[in-house]
Each structure stands twice: as C-alpha cells, then as structure tokens.
Amino acid sequence: MFYFRTLIFSLSLSCAAPVKSEPIMSMSRGFTVSLEDLSGRVLPVHSHRGGAFIEGRMGEAYVVRFDNPTAQRVEVVATVDGRDVVSGEPGDYARQRGYIVEPFGSLRIPGFRRSLSEVAQFRFTGPGDSYSSRRGTPENVGVIGVAVFGQAAPPPTAYRNRDDSDNEQSKGAQAPAMEAPADERGNLGTQFGETRGAPVVEVPFVRARPSAPDAVLAAYYDDREGLIRRGIISQPALSLPGPQPFPENQRFAVPPP
C-alpha cells in the first residue's frame, strides 16, 4: 500500500462552496485553477489556440487557486515555472507530494514553501530574476502546472498480497503532456519573494493511482507587452481624435500667429 504524509492548509483551505471565479483552465471532472492577486481579484485570462494565458504585471504578488467541485478528497501537486511549490525541486508529480483539498473545497497557494509555517510569496519579476532561473532551469519560466490525484478507497478486509496491491494501484492512463505554446520567451517569471506566514500540517493520504493523476492542468503567463508580441492578444487600435466642430467654443476669433 502506498502511504505518504501530505500537506494540508490549516488557514487558507475552505471546505465551503468555492467563490465563483474565472478559471485559467479546467480539465477532467471540472477541476479549475486561477491566479489571483492578494485582494482576491482574478488575473485576466486570454485563450489562444486551445491554451490559456494569464496577464500579469511586473512586481505584482499572486496566489495560485485550485477549486475542487467534486465530492472526492484530492491531492494537488503544483509547480510554478517547472518548480514544485513545496520542495522547490523540478516538478515530478509521481515522486513529490502536495496539498489536500476537501470535497467541494478550494485551496490558495501563496508561495514556495519554506517550512510548515511559512512560504516565499509568489511575485512576478523578470525571467532572469525568477526562482527557476536562479536554480538553473530558465527554460521552464512562464508556466503554472497542477496534477490532481484522487484518494484510494479503504482496503478490503480480505488479505491481499502487498505486491499485487501496489501493482494494481500503479496502473492507469498516462497523464496528458503539457506542451509549450511558443518558442519565444516571455517577459515575466516568478520570484522567490518575501516570507509570509502560511501554516500547514501533515496528514496521511493514499493515492488511488500513485503515478497517474486524474487530471493535469497547465496555463502560461506573461505581461501584456509579451502577450501582444507573441500574438496572443491583439494590439488595441489607437484612438486618434477626429475633427471637432466646436473644439473650444470661444466667443471671438483670434488672429493667427
């Protein structure tokens, strides 16, 4: 039996119906992810060729929000710029553990975890100053990833061979790969920002399929200039003033210069 201790937010996790917000992407069974600023405002989202692109701003702090609309308890393994938000290592959902989200609950991840009590705030910065670049993986800057695992049912009372049980749990369809939308690098990355409190506790969780997520979600981000340059959003047309019949409505004519 695969048995691990996983993290659960003690302050930022809500088991009530999630507040309505626009998701950056939803896949399989309605799981959704969005980026929010610290006031809870959902960051703008643009669809392009089947992908989702979030519009961020240099220096802006944000949180990753996950909503679970199902009646099942799930584990969420999240990455920012290809780095696991708990361990800080390159993302590997089969090996790394994440956060628990209760049925019909939501989760807000505010930063890279530094301890059971603190995180380093997610904050948009230049690609070269991003946590991922400074850890040696600049090629992954500009993407948010989330893998969702369902919980295993309680084992039957009858004896089962341990190896057989493990093999059965390991079976499952391979999760869809996340493909980069374009070769160009964006203007934003995510900083290992200031320390803030975010207490969690460890709880047990057994995955139904240890290495095969129920869903994998991905979205990309950049600033507005970068999204325009990459053709993801259109450059707004310049609004040039036309001739005005009464521009100032003076009382008498003034001689020309």
Feature tags:
single chain, 257 residues, mainly beta, seven-stranded antiparallel sheet, seven-stranded mixed sheet, 7% helix, 35% strand, elongated
Can you offer a commentary on this structure?
By secondary structure, the chain is mainly beta. The chain is built from three helices and 16 strands. The protein has helices at 131-134, 162-170, 224-229, and strands spanning 4-9, 25-27, 31-36, 45-48, 51-55, 61-67, 74-80, 83-84, 99-101, 106-109, 111-113, 118-125, 143-150, 189-197, 200-205, 215-222. The strands form three sheets. Strands 2, 3, 6, 10, 11, 12 and 14 form a seven-stranded antiparallel β-sheet that branches. Strands 4, 5, 7, 8, 9, 13 and 16 form a seven-stranded mixed β-sheet that branches.
Write the layout of secondary structure elements.
Blueprint: E1 4-9, E2 25-27, E3 31-36, E4 45-48, E5 51-55, E6 61-67, E7 74-80, E8 83-84, E9 99-101, E10 106-109, E11 111-113, E12 118-125, H1 131-134, E13 143-150, H2 162-170, E14 189-197, E15 200-205, E16 215-222, H3 224-229
Parallel strand pairs: 5-16
Antiparallel strand pairs: 1-15, 2-3, 3-6, 4-5, 6-10, 6-12, 7-8, 7-9, 7-13, 11-12, 12-14, 13-16
Structural class by sheet pairing and helices? mainly beta
Q: How many independent structural domains?
A: 1
Output the helix-strand order: EEEEEEEEEEEEHEHEEEH
Quick one: overall form?
elongated
* Poorly predicted residue ranges: 8-28, 159-178
Tally of contiguous helical segments: 3
- The total beta strand count reads 16
The proportion of strand residues reads 25-35%
| Most strands sheet | 7 strands, antiparallel
- What is the straight-line distance between the termini? 91 Å
Oligomeric state as shown: single chain
Which percent bin holds the helix content? under 10%
CA gyration radius, whole angstroms = 23 Å
Mean pLDDT: 79
